[in-house]
Inverse folding.
């Protein structure tokens, strides 16, 4: 990695303890991670490993109880106020009473863009996710995959440098998922955004990422960070290559090791 | 066609039952009458008489329909005997009360979801208010308002609002709270204000709940307006019509007024349903 660019996301000794009725739950313990500009970082691990929680900390939707976390050199709260990131949730979460264009306009309205600029941006991001011409449709008229693409367009509309995605394709079938993965890579290449991507699919993580963060539960922690040697240009059949299989193997080992010291 | 048949069957069964009940309940009067005249009547002779009495215990369906038609279409609408006149008096109080009740209900719901103190304090009172029989509280409202010089339409409308605000509060609180955590988080990532969250997410989400409440509320409004007419000894309105009917033993008139009230209620609910359909289709929430 080059050292000249300032890190986009930097976590040092990050801790998060939830106080629940059953006592404290250690959701994150001593998480150290540096994400540079233009990285595609996947967080992989079983449920309860804190991968979503970490993403939510970056988005200032959760607040760490220890350690330090900066986003674009600011605190997560400041970064949120500066609208540094777009967040894509597991479900598309489109408003049923708004058209696709209306849904994409939602953040733009809140952020006070002019009417003309809103229209121009909606067109642009619809194009970007290959939904041009669907702006006037209502969400229920679109398939699940198209809805999720619309929600990505919504996150892209206001030009945040960072895109945080929490299992965005988790609810979709394998074939649609493959297509969207391919499109996401193209989108990433075109927009040069920094992407944080939560998944529990090993092939998805390896196929997409420049950096794979393997996590394990109880307490949620990082067990391995893998810098992918795969080239930036990735056709789908790269998944049959030797390097791909080696990385996937290392991820699997990391996941197993995380489970090993627990049982 | 296959929807009409079951409906007609049920109606036919009700009408048949009603005729049977009318004969059974009114025959005693017919026999008494005959006994007083020193005559002996057989059941078959008594049968037609049980359906034509002027003050039957239970009027036969055709008597009620005849009275309903006569007092709706057979009178000038300004006449004190016209059901249109009485219906309008009640309807105007209903609509005003419905408007007040809906407005108050929505305001209370907005307060409840935004203010923890209101959340904890208002709902128990709202529930308590509905456990008090409206018949007990209606005269007091009339008397109190009368003492400060408010008469006529407004007291009735307030009683009507008293009944109709409750379903709106309950429905709107539920509706305004219907957005899930993910949708609220999404707006948080945009750094949206409370007002934006309300206007862009909570309010539109609550629309289906609101309309369901409005359907209950408008029927309750009509009941409230009629009840509001009873203790005042009002001279106009469907409630007054019911009251005068019972004073003079005019059972046919009572039943006709009851049916008029039921028809008005059905029409009001249907109108709200129609508006609901239009609004939700325009919002893309109904297909």
């Amino acid at each position: 990695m080059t050292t000249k660019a300032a890190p986009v996301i930097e976590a040092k000794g990050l801790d998060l303890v939830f106080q629940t009725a059953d006592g404290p739950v250690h959701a994150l313990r001593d998480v150290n991670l540096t994400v540079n500009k233009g990285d595609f970082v996947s967080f992989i691990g079983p449920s309860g490993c804190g991968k979503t929680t970490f993403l939510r900390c970056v988005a200032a939707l959760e607040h760490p109880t220890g350690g330090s976390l900066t986003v674009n050199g600011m605190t997560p709260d400041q970064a949120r106020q500066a609208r540094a990131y777009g967040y894509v949730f597991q479900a598309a979460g489109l408003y049923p009473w708004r058209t696709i264009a209306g849904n994409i306009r939602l953040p733009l309205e809140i952020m006070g863009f002019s009417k003309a600029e809103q229209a121009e941006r909606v067109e642009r991001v619809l194009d970007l996710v290959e939904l041009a011409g669907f702006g006037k449709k209502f969400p229920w008229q679109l398939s699940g995959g198209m809805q999720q693409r619309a929600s990505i367009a919504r996150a892209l509309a206001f030009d945040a440098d960072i895109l945080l995605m929490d299992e965005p394709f988790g609810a979709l079938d394998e074939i649609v998922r493959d297509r969207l993965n391919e499109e996401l890579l193209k989108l990433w290449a075109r927009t040069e955004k920094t992407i944080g991507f939560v998944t529990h699919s090993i092939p998805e993580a390896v196929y997409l990422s420049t950096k794979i963060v393997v996590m394990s539960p109880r307490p949620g922690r990082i067990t391995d960070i893998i810098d992918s040697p795969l080239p930036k240009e990735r056709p789908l059949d790269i998944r049959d290559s030797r390097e791909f299989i080696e990385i996937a193997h290392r991820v699997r080992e990391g996941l197993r090791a995380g489970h090993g010291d627990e049982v | 066609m296959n929807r009409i048949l079951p409906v007609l069957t049920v109606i036919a069964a009700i009408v048949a039952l009603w005729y049977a009940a009318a004969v059974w309940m009114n025959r005693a009067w017919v026999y008494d009458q005959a006994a007083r005249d020193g005559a002996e009547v057989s059941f078959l002779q008594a049968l037609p008489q049980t359906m034509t009495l002027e003050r039957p215990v239970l009027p036969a369906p055709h008597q009620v329909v005849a009275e309903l038609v006569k007092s709706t279409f057979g009178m000038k609408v300004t006449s004190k005997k016209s059901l249109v006149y009485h219906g309008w008096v009640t309807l105007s109080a209903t609509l005003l009360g419905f408007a007040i009740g809906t407005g108050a209900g929505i305001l209370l719901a907005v307060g409840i979801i935004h203010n923890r103190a209101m959340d904890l304090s208002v709902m128990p009172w709202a529930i308590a208010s509905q456990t008090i029989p409206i018949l007990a509280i209606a005269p007091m409202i009339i008397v109190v308002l009368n003492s400060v010089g408010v008469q006529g339409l407004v007291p009735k409308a307030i009683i009507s609002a008293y009944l109709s605000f409750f379903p709106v509060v309950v429905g709107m609180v539920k509706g305004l709270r219907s957005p899930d955590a993910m949708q609220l988080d999404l707006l948080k990532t945009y750094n949206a204000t409370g007002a934006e969250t309300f206007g862009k997410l909570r309010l539109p989400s609550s629309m289906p709940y609101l309309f369901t409440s409005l359907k209950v509320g408008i029927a309750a409004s009509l009941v409230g307006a009629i009840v509001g007419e009873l203790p005042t000894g009002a001279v106009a309105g469907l409630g007054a019509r019911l009251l005068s009917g019972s004073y003079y033993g005019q059972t046919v008139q009572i039943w006709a007024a009851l049916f008029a009230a039921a028809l008005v209620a059905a029409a009001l609910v249907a109108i709200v349903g129609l508006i609901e359909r239009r609004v939700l289709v325009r919002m893309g929430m109904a297909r």
User: Anything to note?
Assistant: Chain B touches chain A at residues 182-183, 185-192, 196, 200-201, 204, 207, 283-285, 287 (CB under 8 Å). The first helix of chain B runs from residue 4 to 36.
